[in-house]
Design the sequence.
């Protein structure tokens, strides 16, 4: 216990008041966001399938992150010339509040509309978050602090996923969606207390903006970056195939002869 207290005290001294404050706020907001993250990213599509989503609707739900990110470059230039914090806070606040709609109107079309609107808003906050991070943490500690926050969030998400899955099986998607929306909104409200610098570091401001040809040439010359550029679309394809496999699995289970025979039995005959 003393060693842990010493570690926290020494890290606080190394970071300074602003960075330590931002780390605590970021960690607290991420802990709350874990609940929203599990419900939306792991259970949202299965919930839509449970409500009767068609193949095309499942496809739109799977493709919605890519659709939202298509417009990120449009916002990136504007965000670079202004304060990124509102572009981070407002889209997240609206997007996480929207998730409450499928809880009350549990039809597949609402799931699809909310997912598309949510991801379009995430297309705004994605470049804003990247721009905000460099104003939150000093460069020598940025990677470590972001990694610590993400590891803690990942550890929390493991038991949360089990609890949300059990809750959904027992009571349906309404409760988990309401809970996710509330915790998501609370997490972004906590994040508003971040104390970010108004100006980006001078090196970032003075950096030359590369053309599209120069960026492609950089990817071609950098093996790791080229591999990353290939892995991102492959991950999107894997997510899409996973959602289709979930759909197929549920169709097999729901159409199996054993389940049909059980469903035809009355509660009295099952007991007897």
Sequence:
């Amino acid at each position: 216990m003393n060693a842990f207290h010493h570690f926290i005290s020494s890290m606080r001294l190394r970071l300074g008041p602003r960075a330590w404050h931002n780390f605590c706020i970021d960690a607290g907001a991420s802990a709350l966001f874990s609940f929203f993250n599990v419900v939306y990213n792991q259970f949202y599509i299965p919930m839509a399938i449970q409500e009767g989503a068609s193949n095309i609707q499942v496809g739109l739900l799977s493709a919605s992150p890519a659709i939202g990110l298509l417009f990120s470059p449009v916002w990136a230039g504007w965000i670079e010339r202004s304060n990124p914090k509102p572009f981070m806070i407002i889209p997240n606040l609206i997007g996480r509040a929207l998730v409450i709609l499928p809880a009350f109107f549990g039809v597949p079309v609402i799931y699809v509309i909310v997912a598309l609107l949510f991801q379009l808003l995430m297309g705004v906050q994605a470049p804003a978050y990247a721009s905000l991070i460099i104003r939150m943490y000093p460069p020598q500690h940025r990677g470590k602090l972001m990694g610590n926050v993400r590891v803690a969030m990942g550890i929390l998400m493991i038991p949360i996923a089990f609890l949300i899955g059990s809750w959904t099986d027992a009571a349906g998607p309404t409760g988990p969606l309401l809970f996710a929306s509330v915790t998501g909104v609370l997490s972004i409200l906590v994040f508003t207390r971040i104390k970010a610098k108004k100006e980006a570091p001078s090196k970032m401001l003075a950096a030359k903006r590369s053309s599209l040809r120069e960026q492609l040439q950089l990817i071609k010359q950098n093996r790791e970056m080229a591999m990353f550029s290939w892995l991102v679309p492959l991950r999107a394809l894997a997510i899409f195939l996973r959602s289709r496999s979930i759909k197929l699995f549920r169709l097999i289970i729901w159409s199996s002869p054993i389940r049909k025979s059980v469903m035809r039995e009355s509660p009295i005959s099952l007991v007897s």
Observations:
- The chain has two domains: 16-197, 213-272.
- The first helix runs from residue 2 to 15.
- The chain has a mean pLDDT of 80.
